[in-house]
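Page 42, continued from yesterday. The earlier attempt failed because a stray header line got pasted into the input along with the sequence. Redoing it now with the clean sequence only.
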Amino acid sequence: MHIEVKHPCIEHKLAEVRSNDQPISKFRELISEITMLLSFRALEDLEQKEVEIETPIAKTICKKIKGEIIVVPILRAGLGMLDGFLSVMPSSKVGFLGMFRNEETSLPESYYENIPRGSQDDLHLIVDPMLATGGSTIAAIDLLKEKKIKKIIVVCIVTCPEGIEAVEKIHPDVKIYTASIDSHLNEKNYIVPGLGDAGDRLFGTY
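This time it went through. Structure tokens are written below.
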């Protein structure tokens, strides 16, 4: 299941982040802000528990989130989305997945992983600005499921029909939240119109 989150503020920031003229500092800022806005939708179904709170006036029953949230950026571009999530839920734990593309097989391979232990029943958010072919996202979900993790959500800034179809074919139980479903992939597997290489634009490695 995929959800394209439509909101005037997201649309406005998407127009800015796509622009080729944005300096690195502004690009980073926009990626973080869009992520923050996406997080409100991506986290709307979190389980809650009732707790008793004593205010300065009286005792009352309130609701808090049940369980932990683990944000898992796919290195390196996913790091650009991390602060956006932590600004909303600063108590979240953070895991990391490093992926690279094998030039011979064209398949993603993991070179680094560090996922908090004992978190199989907690919500894991895989974050990466671009969901293009879907290869890295599928590999990330595979890796988490191998660790018996049950609750997984993918959050990206921009994706395309090809990427969504690829992920949903293998992992139909994982929700995908995105700010935009763009037109298509070009012959170089870049999203069109997209926003270019998010990692290069985040870190200045053009």
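Notes: The helical segments are 8-18, 24-42, 79-88, 135-146, 161-170, 198-203.
Reminder to self: strip header lines before submitting.
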